[in-house]
Design goal:
With 888 residues, the chain is α/β, with parallel strands linked by helices. 47% of the residues lie in helices and 17% in strands. It binds one RNA strand of 75 nucleotides through β7, β8, β12, β13 and α12.
RNA sequence: GGAUGCUUAGCUCAGUGGUAGAGCGCUGCCUUCACACGGCAGGGGUCACAGGUUCGAAUCCUGUAGCAUCCACCA
């Protein structure tokens, strides 16, 4: 074995080997007798590249997949890519523009060809980057949301939902992205706080004289939309305005007269308490308009300029230009009462960054409120389980307030909506052009010209079908029947609404099945100080850089250990370096065993082991295997990592390997053989259970240490399974006593500033020798604590200091006489602490309430503790008394 | 405005009724034949605050404060 662990070459070696040997290749139906285990990868965008968030999400999935594979499950980790409609279109469009090509001139078909070409060349780099993480998916079997089979599925689902009246076309106010010139969904909006103004504008009453009031003041942040006002609304109980309800206003700068209406929606506290009603450009106003049967006047073009529905002087102006002009005109007319500077939230499109406009258009909608009913039920009933559970609340909140989902987009890249229009705009939804014509012919009684809907579907529509379309639905495949519902979805909370909720809605309706049993919501990655990673802050960690520097295993181990059930995890390089050190530690421990000719023998029978130290480590390792299993099964990746880390480093390396050295260097051949086999067995178990988290080093060590057969892979081996042999507990107690004794002596050495190289002389009484089996561990105590052990009261108390370990007095002889008073007060302090502790427990045991109400096991524990404390205290007290005798 | 989290050692976080834990950092000692990406030994916390429930609260309940996130909000 090399002296250092060269992660780069080992990562390369196994990435290639696994792929060449097709270790992770999946062939449908190949393992019919094994239980299936299935995870669908949340498909990254074809435009995406690997960031730490991906690394975290994919590592956790790979840990589960590798673990279940070792457990003997027939695993499928289905990889895939998302076509990412808007993002991809914008990207390719930009690239074409830089070459001087305009998308619109190119035309739809050629543009789509260009996107496909781009996809073939540079789409899906992220999949290659995933390989470097060590992901054990089948890269030859990648699904794409836009490939033939998925397109077929999307059409089928659309047709079904349309025929069931769950998809419909409607003219409504939608969120409009004027840059993209497309509708977007409410989720694709980000509200940003910006500086703005509130303008107070006077609207004159038509017959002001008769009611003693000349005008009503309205407040608005968007004066330009007044051109589309159709009413002013006040609260019916607002004393300021009750007399004016039903009167009419002259809308300034236009020749229109608009009514004053009463509506409960109005908030008397806001603005002036009178609201200008602009149904075409505000969602709430739209509803007020509907309630009062008001006209809808749209004054904007698709790119958010003023259209021809207004006086010619405003036409073609941008909103800002129009605003400026209108404010000036109002001021000239003395109708502008005041302007207040305010901060307010304004909606912007997440992707294009344009200011979103409420805009009246014809769009396709999915009746989400109806589908939500079943989607809520399956989570309430526990069929679908959120981990951690409290994400259910977020899900329910959203689902209970869900609105119809606008699924049509006015872009080119995506699933074109399978709808055709007849001459009278009658809609025919069909699987193909031919089918549509057939439907139309049946309807009209003759062959007619049809026009296909140009819109495409929201990207999330096709990803919403991901769990079953990847299993080739609507074809009735073997794997679809076998694997659906899938086992677990691992994703971030940021897409619970976008994706998780929609998958549950669509899958429960289309398949009459849940898409997955568990949803593990992982945390968002932040920097080491808990700040969001952003390019402008310069605190972005690139997982590929981290892999280069620390190794994929170190990164994966860090990720696992960070994944506590919280919302965010802070990742810093220091932490990764720490786990890189752990990987190195494991490497060196194995190297030590190789140097000492330890071997792994799979016929090794753990129950045949005699030496207590070996029994002890076997018991500990078996415990660790169980802890790791429980942790992974419960999605506690942090606990799995912690269990392995502590066992390997804190127990195996720090204690067992040190304890084993005296045996190895001794001459008890039988014991040496047993110890070498035990050590080899133990490290092999660690290597196996660490494999899901750190696949590269463990695969290399399995090869170097011959844990796997020649040409076999740890990745394809099985998870260890052992039960604790009877009687090993006793050894555990003994060995742990010896370790405590060693620690106590070392501690004393350090406290007394005794040189580490000196061999100290210690003395233990004959009685203690038998009681604590000191002679059995003498060699270990001698070597590890660097002492020479003698029995009986040989040394003068005047030149010894003492430590008491579980009642056993260990005297340490010094070259010079000790200050007995100082020694006494040191021991006395220890005694005081012991007595305080034992009194504490004594008091509790004397408490009637405690005895009556505490559980039996708790009481038994307390009694046990009390006995132990009292034994130690008594022994210490006796010893102090003996010191008194010495001095007196 | 509505909701959900969080507040524990210098830092980052576990622990969720029974005597406060880890990693990193820090201090001292050690170039001991697996490993200085190491070893040994230490120091360090009235578990945000105030009430309550309980024999017993870091843990359960109520309230307060601060922080974070999500949703809503263009008068």
């Amino acid at each position: 074995m090399d002296k250092t662990f060269d992660h780069k070459s080992i990562e390369k070696k196994f990435t290639n080997k696994w792929e060449e040997q097709k270790i992770f290749s999946f062939s449908p139906g190949s393992k019919p007798s094994a239980q299936p285990y299935t995870i669908m990868l949340p498909p990254p965008n074809i435009t995406g590249s690997l960031h730490v968030g991906h690394a975290l999400c994919y590592t956790l999935q790979d840990v589960l997949i590798r673990y279940k594979r070792m457990k003997g499950f027939d695993v499928l980790w289905q990889l895939g890519l998302d076509h990412a409609g808007i993002v991809t279109q914008l990207l390719v469009e930009k690239e074409l523009t830089s070459k001087g090509i305009d998308r619109r001139q190119l035309g739809r078909e050629k543009f789509i060809d260009a996107v496909w070409e781009w996809k073939e060349q540079s789409g899906g780099t992220i999949l290659n980057q995933m390989r470097r993480l060590g992901t054990s998916g089948d890269f030859s079997r990648v699904c794409f949301t836009m490939d033939e089979q998925r397109q077929k599925a999307v059409r089928e689902v659309f047709i079904k939902l349309y025929n069931d009246s769950l998809i419909y076309r409607d003219k409504r106010l939608v969120n409009w992205d004027p840059e993209l010139k497309s509708a977007i969904s409410d989720l694709e909006i980000v509200n940003k706080e910006v500086d703005g103004s509130m303008w107070y504008i006077k609207y004159p009453l038509v017959d002001g004289e008769s009611c003693g009031q000349q005008y009503i003041t309205i407040a608005t942040t968007r004066p330009e939309t007044m051109l589309a006002d159709v009413a002013v609304a006040v609260h019916p109980d607002d004393a300021r305005y009750t007399g004016l309800i039903g009167k009419r206003l002259r809308l300034p700068l236009t020749d229109r007269v608009i009514p004053i209406v009463a509506d409960e929606y109005i908030d008397r506290e806001k603005g002036s308490g009178a609201l200008k009603v602009t149904p075409a450009h505000d969602f709430n106003d739209f509803e007020i308009g509907q309630r009062h049967g008001l006209e809808v006047i749209n004054i904007l073009t698709p790119d958010a300029k003023i259209n021809d529905n207004v006086a010619s002087e405003y036409r073609g102006l941008t909103q800002d230009q129009a605003r400026e002009l209108i404010l000036k005109q109002l001021a000239d007319l003395s109708l502008l009462e005041k302007e207040e500077k305010i901060k307010h939230f304004v909606p912007y499109a997440d992707r294009s960054g344009a200011r979103v406009e409420p805009y009246i258009t014809d769009q396709w909608f999915l009746d989400a409120p109806k589908l939500a009913v079943e989607a809520i039920r399956v989570v309430e009933s526990g069929e679908v389980r959120f981990v951690p559970k409290n994400w259910e609340n977020t899900y329910f909140d959203w689902m209970h307030n869900i609105k119809p989902w606008c699924i049509s987009r006015q872009i080119w890249w995506g699933h074109q909506i399978p709808a055709w229009y007849g001459p009278d705009d009658k809609i025919f939804v069909a699987n193909s052009d031919n089918d549509a014509h057939a439907l139309a012919e049946k309807h009209y009684g003759r062959r007619v010209e049809l026009r296909r809907d140009e819109d495409v579907l929201d990207t999330w529509f096709s990803s919403g079908l991901w769990t079953f379309t990847t299993l080739n639905w609507p074809d009735e495949t073997y794997e679809l029947k076998r694997r659906h519902p899938t086992d677990v979805l691992i994703t971030g909370f940021d897409i619970i609404f976008f994706w998780v909720a929609r998958m549950i809605m669509l899958t429960t309706y289309v398949c009459k099945q849940i898409p997955f049993k568990d949803i593990y919501i992982h945390a968002i990655v932040r920097d080491e100080k808990g700040r969001k990673m952003s390019k402008s802050k310069g605190n972005v960690l690139d997982p590929l850089d981290l892999i280069d520097e620390f190794g994929a295993d170190a990164l994966r181990f860090t990720i696992a250990s960070l994944c506590t059930p919280t919302r965010s995890v802070n990742m810093g390089e220091e932490r990764i370096a720490g786990y890189r050190n752990f990987i190195t530690k494991l490497w060196n421990a194995t190297r030590f065993l190789v140097m000492n000719e330890c071997k792994y023998d799979d016929r090794f029978d753990v129950s045949s082991v005699k030496a207590s130290i070996n029994q002890w480590i076997i018991a500990k390792v078996i415990r660790t295997i169980a802890d790791t299993e429980n942790a992974i099964e419960g999605y506690r990746f942090d606990e799995a990592a912690k269990a392995i880390y502590q066992s390997v480093w804190g127990m195996f390396c720090d204690w067992y390997l040190e304890l084993v050295k005296p045996i190895m260097n001794g001459n008890n051949q039988e014991k040496i053989v047993e110890t070498k086999l035990t050590a080899g067995w133990a490290i092999a178990q660690f290597i196996k259970i660490l494999h899901p988290i750190a696949p590269f080093i463990t695969e290399e060590l399995a090869e170097a240490f011959a844990i796997t057969e020649k040409d076999a892979f740890l990745s394809a081996s099985s998870w260890p399974c052992y039960s604790l042999p009877k009687g090993f507990d006793k050894s555990t107690e003994e060995v742990e006593w010896a370790c405590q004794a060693i620690s106590a002596i070392r501690s004393m050495r350090s406290d007394m500033h005794l040189p580490p190289s000196d061999i100290l002389k210690i003395v233990i009484s004959e009685a203690d020798k038998t009681k604590y089996s000191v002679d059995k561990y003498e060699i270990f105590i001698q070597k590890l604590a660097k002492v020479d052990v003698k029995y009986g009261p040989t040394y003068n108390s005047l030149t010894t200091v003492s430590v008491i370990v579980e009642g056993c007095v260990i005297k340490i002889a010094l070259d010079q006489s000790v200050d007995i008073q100082k020694e006494k007060s040191r021991l006395q302090a220890e005694l005081t602490k012991l007595q305080a502790d034992s009194q504490n427990i004594h008091a509790r045991l004397a408490n009637q309430g405690f005895l009556a109400k505490a559980s039996e096991s708790v009481i038994a524990d307390h009694k046990q503790q009390l006995i132990s404390l009292e034994t130690r205290a008594n022994r210490l007290q006796e010893f102090i008394a003996s010191l008194n005798n010495t001095t007196s």
